[in-house]
Design a protein that fits this description.
Layout: H1 3-10, H2 14-23, E1 30-31, E2 37-38, H3 41-55, H4 60-71, H5 77-111, H6 121-126, E3 139-141, E4 153-154, E5 157-158, H7 165-172, E6 176-178
Antiparallel strand pairs: 1-2, 3-6, 4-5
Domain HTH merR-type: 1-69
Pfam families: MerR_1
Subcellular location: Cytoplasm
Length: 182
């Protein structure tokens, strides 16, 4: 079967099949005389195995290790279980982190008035450890195109160079900060 047929049969995209071949997770396909990839049931089985493993959140190196175990007739189930247990421990740690993030965010949201005033306790809490407090009169202007230089003035106000954490983060996103003189 061709790559499209194999993708359909395995429930993955043709792009992912190429990616799996490039990373070595799937052996490079045989080619027809016309240069088209040819796949058989074995490759489709491996693709389904990869798809199922990805659904469970296994990383590509873990999947490679599992495929190696799958093809090893001398493996023990203990070896495979150890891989799954390590992954389970990683998932449990990620879950703990997500629960902590959710709890912290719930606290921030609960103390925010969420009204028409400029004061925002969420922003204050997020900026709590910043080296300098942001100037609330800052206006954020995106350049017309990526990499474009910002004008030296915005509404007649000269741009000041700063070294605050906010300015660095803003600059990294391609947004330029123009501060008003107060």
């Amino acid at each position: 079967m061709n790559i499209g047929d194999a993708a359909k049969a395995a429930g993955v995209s043709a792009k992912m099949i190429r990616h799996y071949e490039q990373t070595g997770l799937l052996p490079e396909a045989e080619r027809s005389e016309a240069g088209y990839r040819k796949y058989g049931e074995r490759e489709v089985s491996v693709l389904r195995f990869i798809r199922q493993s990805r659904r469970l959140g296994f990383s590509m190196p873990q999947i490679a290790e599992l495929i190696g175990q799958w093809g090893d007739t001398h493996r023990t189930s203990r070896q495979v279980k150890a891989i799954a247990e390590r992954h389970l421990a990683d998932l449990e740690e990620k879950l703990r982190e997500i629960v902590e993030m959710k709890s912290a965010l719930e606290q921030l949201v609960s103390v925010c008035a969420g009204d028409d005033h400029a004061h925002c306790s969420i922003l204050e809490n997020l900026a709590a450890d910043s080296p300098s407090a942001p100037n609330h009169s800052a206006s954020f202007v995106k350049p017309k195109r990526r990499g474009a230089k910002a004008s030296t003035a915005h509404s007649g106000v000269a741009e000041k160079q700063t070294t605050s954490h906010l300015d660095l983060m803003t600059w990294m996103r391609g947004v330029h900060v123009h501060r008003g003189a107060h």
